[in-house]
Design goal:
86 residues; mainly alpha; 73% helix; flat
Amino acid sequence: MGYMPRIREEYGARVGPRPHVAERRVVAGARRKLLALASDREGTRALGLRGAEGVRHHHSIARMADRALEVYRSVVQRPVGAGTES
């Protein structure tokens, strides 16, 4: 489901242009960028390097361990019984 149908479903109102128009614009923009990138070997290489660096940064073992510790600390700091309501 695209973002516009989700907004309509969640808020019960239409926001912005009609969904099919907005989605067509997004798809057309993405298509133009992909076609331009297909003929740009250096741009493609740079994009790949940035993507790989982003994965290493956000999904490294150290980052995942830090995040796990954050979660554990938040659980330990909660009062007994907090978050168990149904």
